[in-house]
Amino acid sequence: MIVRLLDSNEDGLLGMEDFARMMEGIKDKRNKESKIIEAFGMYEDMEGSGYITPKSLKRILSRLGESTSIDNYKALI
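Request: output the structure for the sequence above.
Response:
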């Protein structure tokens, strides 16, 4: 299935360009996942609970100049 999707000249094989394009896509996906994990860690590390809590979300967003009630943060989560 991967070969069919990425085979640019439809010869049934992945050439070097096709392979490089596939690997670039994997690299991009891993970079995005890494950034998401890093962002989650920034919130979660506030309390070490393994979850983003309204309290930790409020604390982080307050640092960024955002401020609202804890009920609004609960609604966001």
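DSSP finds four helices and no strands in the chain.
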